[in-house]
Design brief:
Length: 779
């Protein structure tokens, strides 16, 4: 790799002096720019080439050393003065970019990295040499302009508010500053993930923009659209993908008809494609909707046939042109259309590279390949040249902005653990003896100093305006604290308080489909369940797909296995109850046969075989593996209980529970009599959570149902983990139950607002059924 090129060249120079002398003669004068970004090996090579004449000039700023993650050693610039004590110094402090107040703010901020800065160390060294005299060395930059800059802190209640506040400021200053172009504005973020989030928001709010990041091709909405259509050609019954395709704006489908189609599919337990084929059965659909459905079916069928005998690269071009997607992009503003065509061309090249590795490249092989790539965490390489292209707002990481300048700069995500980030230690750390970096003095640490330098770079990209943005709610369970850097800067909030953005003329943030909140309200559930509430708590946008729009999803083999185990135990305990009743009846019937025997292990396994649901498994081998696992679990279950079967009162007991003015429905796996009360049991086929940290809300709901509907007294609530044959029991207190009621009412009231703000995270999105079509996905 590139590192080896440097290392082996260094080794060559050290072991072959004749070769070193040859290049010393060739390069008599050496200038190294951005010296703070060199690593130890590069600096050693420069020193070897420069010797013995040492006609060497280095240009750098230790306060802008931000590439430690790729090996850059900030200590090189500190070490240079020790290696070359007679070197002449030229301090460049005239700044032709920024206003003085922006420069002063940045300078005060970066001094928190003292004593590990060149300015401080050289000043201290001169004080010692001069017997305590102050040094004239200063890196306090002086602006060439007398214009004062704008510095503000924008703070929203949610990430959506934060992004809208920035968009509003961009529109405000684009209007005020008649000389400003869209290219004079930049939104800077700490990570690629935050760039993608801001990029989506800028597009949703209608601002011409360009995302400048090295990663994220597969996350671009235009590529998500293309992948959704291609998945359909590989598998008609990929319902989430068909939902995204039907929401392409150029079809001009009525949103209410789309929801009717989805609900019809859910009611019939069909895939969305099956419902589309039989949409004539759906009452009250608009006549034009039937025609468009027919057109969509026609293209899907024709392109499926074409895909069998043609390369995916040919298929992509044919699809985009024939269904009208190319014309749809062309109709957008020039900057946006140019960006989207660029993404499509890059994706087309990605397909062509894959085709070069295949003997017979077809879509049936490409889709699994790209799916595996995405599921492994790859989001696709991006190629963007920030110096050319349309007049648009640039959205990029701070690292990508290094060396660039913009009239107005917005820095987003300034909250704890986002900027500065938390340090991620290397899995295998180098011994201190091998580390060439000069370790920092004082209370700072290497990571925090690097993050502070990165923020310094962000601030000094701004010419006339600097806005620092944050929010309280980024989708997690807790409110976010302000960034340590904002606290250090002590900039008052714009307007004196946090704000929820609300400026007329800006559209709402995109939901990824045509169905708006007014329509959604007509399809909210009338009853709720623990599963629904948990889905909303995990991600309201996921809840919207699953429980309001009711987009059908591809089944999972784990669900089939769980249903098989639940059905087996329900039938087994039903038989157990029947035999118990038969034994009790025989005590009172003269001349009747002796008491019925208890069920045997053989009976349990026979019930299991007849209850087995052989669906959604990826292969026969996987199905057999799970079937054998179930048999082993049931054998252990029988062995554990055969001498003391419980007295079961209810199996699959349903309920409708009133909480406030809302109704919760549910079904309890098993209820056993225990002493003067009952034990409520819910089966789990997964593993026991770490530290037995279980979510108790589900069984608390069942406890409320038992007390208020069945008039039973629960003495234990039990999650029974079948995989380990281990019960975990507890019981809710009056305080627990009252707190749960308040939480349920609050959650349902949030649902009824129909806002459904996404709460994306890599962990949540990875397990979401809608990760392939969701515009907010971080999977």
């Amino acid at each position: 790799d590139f590192g080896d090129l440097i290392n082996y060249t260094l080794k060559l120079f050290c072991t072959r002096p004749d070769i070193l002398n040859f290049y010393r003669q060739q390069f008599k004068y050496i200038l190294v720019d951005e010296f703070q970004d060199t690593n130890w090996a590069q600096y050693e090579m420069v020193k070897l080439l420069a010797a013995p004449l040492n006609n060497l000039t280095v240009v750098g700023d230790d306060d802008q050393s931000i590439y430690r993650f790729r090996g850059a050693s900030m200590s090189n610039i500190l070490q240079f003065k020790k290696d070359y004590p007679a070197a002449q110094e030229v301090v460049l402090i005239a700044n032709y970019r920024s206003s003085q107040n922006i420069l002063d703010l940045a300078y005060r901020f970066i001094q928190r990295n003292n004593p590990n800065r060149l300015e401080w160390q050289m000043s201290e060294g001169r004080k010692q040499e001069g017997g305590g005299q102050s040094s004239s060395l200063s890196k306090s930059l002086k602006a060439a302009t007398a214009l004062e800059g704008i510095i503000e802190h924008l703070h929203g209640e949610t990430i959506d508010d934060e992004l809208r506040l920035m968009a509003e400021k961009i529109l405000e200053f684009k209007s005020k500053d008649k000389e400003a172009s869209w290219g004079d504005f930049a939104v800077l973020a700490r990570s690629n993930e935050q760039v993608n989030q801001a990029d989506l928001a800028m597009g949703s709010l209608g601002l011409p923009h360009q995302s400048v990041t090295a990663k994220g091709l597969y996350l671009k909405p235009v590529i998500v659209d293309v992948l959704a259509y291609l998945r359909l050609l590989d598998n008609y019954h990929e319902s989430p993908s068909l939902w995204r395709v039907l929401n392409f704006p150029f079809w001009k489908l009525r949103p209410r008809d789309l929801v009717e189609l989805s609900h019809f599919a859910s009611k019939k337990s069909w895939s969305l494609f099956e419902a589309l084929e039989k949409s004539a059965l759906i009452p009250n659909l608009h006549e034009e909707t039937h025609r468009i459905f027919g057109t969509v079916l026609k293209w899907i069928n024709e392109h499926t046939v074409f895909a069998r005998d043609h390369r995916p690269s040919e298929l992509l071009v044919k699809v985009l042109n024939e269904i009208g997607y190319t014309g749809y992009i062309e109709s957008k503003p020039e900057g946006q259309s140019r960006n989207e065509f660029s993404y499509l061309n890059q994706f087309h090249r990605r397909i062509k590279r894959w085709e070069e590795t295949e003997a017979d490249p077809r879509i049936r092989d490409f889709m699994p390949a790209i799916t595996y790539e995405i599921e492994s965490g790859e989001v696709g390489d991006l190629s963007v040249d920030v110096e050319v292209g349309p007049d648009v707002v640039r959205v990029m990481t701070v690292h990508a902005a290094k060396g660039l300048e913009f009239k107005y700069v917005f820095v987003t995500g300034l909250v704890d653990r986002r900027f500065p980030t938390t340090e991620r230690r290397d899995p295998i750390e180098l011994p201190d003896a091998l580390v060439k970096e000069i370790l920092p003095q004082g209370d700072n640490n290497i990571h925090l100093e690097e993050e502070r330098r990165l923020f310094y770079v962000a601030m000094t990209r701004a010419k006339r305006g600097l806005w620092l943005a944050s929010a309280e709610d980024y989708g997690g369970s807790r409110k976010k604290k302000l960034s340590q850097f904002l606290i250090e800067l002590d900039i008052p909030l714009a307007g004196g308080k946090k704000a929820a953005a609300n400026v007329s003329g800006l559209p709402a943030l995109v939901l990824g489909d045509l169905v708006d909140a007014d329509i959604i309200k007509d399809y909210l559930p009338e009853q709720f369940s623990f599963t629904q509430l948990k889905a909303y708590e995990t991600c309201p946008y996921q809840y919207r797909y699953a429980h309001v729009l009711k987009v059908p999803v591809w089944g999972r083999h784990t669900f089939s296995f769980g249903q098989s185990m639940h059905l087996t135990l329900e039938r087994f305990f039903t038989r157990l109850k029947e035999k118990k009743s038969a034994r009790q009846g025989s005590l009172f019937a003269e001349g009747q046969p002796s008491a019925a025997a208890e069920p045997t292990l053989e009976e349990l396994l026979q019930i299991y075989e007849s209850s087995w649901i052989d669906e959604w498994y990826e292969s026969k081998d996987q199905a057999q593996e799970y079937f054998n696992l179930g048999r082993d679990i049931l054998k252990e279950f029988f062995k554990k209980h055969e001498d003391a079967w419980p007295d079961t009162k209810f199996l699959e007991k349903g309920f409708n529970l009133k909480i406030g003015s809302y109704t919760l429905k549910g079904k309890v796996d098993r209820v056993d009599a225990r002493g003067d009360g009952v034990e409520i049991i819910d089966y789990k086929t997964g593993s026991v959570p770490k530290n037995e940290d279980v979510d108790k809300d589900q069984l608390f709901i069942y406890q409320l149902a038992a007390e208020n509907i069945w008039q039973e007294k629960p003495v234990a609530l039990t999650f029974y983990y079948l995989g380990e044959n281990k019960p975990i029991s507890f019981l809710g207190t009056a305080h627990d139950l009252e707190a749960l009621k308040k939480k349920i009412i609050s959650t349902i009231e949030e649902i009824r607002k129909s806002e459904f703000k996404a709460k994306p995270s890599p962990q949540t999105c990875r397990h979401c059924d809608f990760k392939k079509i969701c515009p907010f996905s971080q999977a």
